[in-house]
Design goal:
alpha/beta, 5-stranded mixed sheet, Rossmann fold, 14 helices, single chain, 7-stranded mixed sheet, 2 domains, about 450 residues
């Protein structure tokens, strides 16, 4: 099973540890503002606020049930809060605090005018009927009615939610807000992103996170002077939306995707698998492990079944953790044989694992850069909603590519200058932008 790992630190402490490491490097750039810098770092260690409460809905059997809910708003110095809504039984307050912090850095890295936020509801969405899921979604939107809005906080989908959930939420938020204001209100569609296309969603949003990661892969290939894509082997842990689209676009460019997995385990094909056929097979069988598919066919003896643990430890050129956080830890970091890691999940590597990778010379492209394509296209959706004018898929993806490439180039230049890891370079780039915004606003 692809399980959530127990960290030696809780996720928020992990985020704070990363911030403290970067602060030690950045402080030399603030020789005339050391006190202001220190105050800014102290502020950024905690969210601006965490909204929490219980959501109560009527289940299909007529009984009432309550669900713990959170919204962490980390910092809005650079623009409205922005972040996904996660429905998962393992959600904790510390988790949403950490994810909101990482979202602040992610928005800064790509230069989009947002700050970080994150939501979590403690629920196994798979166990809810469609009617129960809609009631819970509407209850959550009503819970946040006065805390979100186009210029305040713009939520989006995350684990356990998606376009339909965003559609229900924007409808409930609009009705609740209109009831308060007597009909006068801001553009409701711009309050949520990741919506269905017929409710103001953006073309290209589904594949944006995975595709953005492949743009990063291409830049890494340039820097490392890889000669032939077909010689580069890739293993993707997590074959959901993000993992699939990363595998799909990498495969289309000629890279060799040799392994993928879902929660039940994975498959390994040394000659390379076909992501499209693998997804079609998974939909039919319910599990990637039943799907050994190359360009020509799906056949049992084409490859072998592997566990998620085995996938992580494969000897490949690029490992792509694209599921949940903290799968690369102190316990397994020494067994990782991949030469490079592109983090498509949020927080897949603990600080202890990071140190081991540094010593082993494994290059890690951090999540706040690698998976920023999703929030970037969410920003594009917000802009389109505010304008009431929509772009084609090609326009959206063509606008995404230069932002991802520019973010990578800036990270690489800082990495070369500091002689640091990619994570430290990315965080230095992002944290400086947020600190400068806090100072410019006079908030510290």
């Amino acid at each position: 099973m692809l399980e959530r790992k127990t960290m030696s630190q809780n996720p928020h402490k992990q985020a704070v540890t990363q911030l403290e490491k970067v602060a030690k490097i950045l402080i030399k750039d603030y020789s005339d503002q050391r006190e202001l810098f220190s105050l800014a770092i102290k502020k950024l260690k905690q969210p601006d606020r965490v909204i929490e409460g219980m959501l109560e809905i009527v289940m299909d059997n007529g009984k009432k049930q309550q669900f713990q809910a959170y919204r962490s708003q980390h910092d809005d110095a650079r623009g409205p809060y922005k972040g996904g809504i996660r429905f998962h039984p393992g959600v904790t307050k510390e988790e949403v605090m950490a994810l909101s912090t990482w979202m602040t850095w992610k928005c800064a890295v790509t230069g989009i005018p947002y700050g970080g936020a994150k939501s979590g509801v403690v629920v196994d969405a798979k166990k809810l009927s469609m009617a129960e899921l809609q009631r819970l979604s509407r209850a959550y939107a009503k819970f946040l009615v006065n805390d979100i809005g186009p210029w305040t906080d713009v939520p989006a989908p995350d684990v356990g939610t998606g376009g339909p959930v965003m559609g229900w939420m924007v409808d409930e938020w609009q009705k609740s807000k209109q009831a308060q204001s007597g009909g006068l209100m801001e553009n409701p569609l711009a309050t949520f992103t990741g919506k269905p296309l017929n409710l103001g969603g953006s073309q290209g949003r589904d594949e944006a996170t995975g595709l953005g990661g492949v743009y990063v892969l291409e830049k890494l290939a340039q820097k490392l002077a890889w000669k032939r894509r077909q010689d580069i082997t890739i293993a993707v842990q997590g074959f959901g939306n993000v993992g699939y689209w990363f595998a799909y676009h990498a495969d289309r460019l000629g890279y060799k995707v040799v392994a993928v997995s879902d929660s039940a385990g994975g498959v390994y094909l040394a000659s390379g698998l076909d992501p499209v056929k693998t997804l079609e097979c998974k939909k039919q069988t319910g599990s990637v492990q039943q799907c050994m598919c190359d360009r020509d066919k799906c056949q049992v003896n084409l490859g072998k079944k592997i566990t998620n643990k085995e996938l992580l430890e494969l000897e490949v050129d690029v490992l792509v953790p694209a599921a949940l956080e903290s799968v690369l830890t102190q316990e397994n970091a020494g067994k990782i044989k991949a030469k490079n890691i592109i983090e498509m999940a949020n927080g897949p590597t603990t600080p202890e694992a990071d140190e081991i990778f540094d010593k082993k010379g494994i290059l890690v492209i951090p999540d706040v850069l690698a998976n920023a394509g999703g929030v970037t296209v969410s920003y594009f959706e917000w802009v389109q909603n505010l304008q009431g004018y929509f772009w084609t898929k090609d326009e959206v993806l063509n606008k995404l590519k230069p932002l991802m490439e520019q973010a990578f180039e800036q990270m690489w230049q800082i990495k070369q200058k500091l002689g640091s890891s990619s994570r430290i370079a990315t965080y230095a780039q992002a944290v400086k932008l947020v600190v400068d915004a806090l100072i410019a606003r006079g908030r510290i």
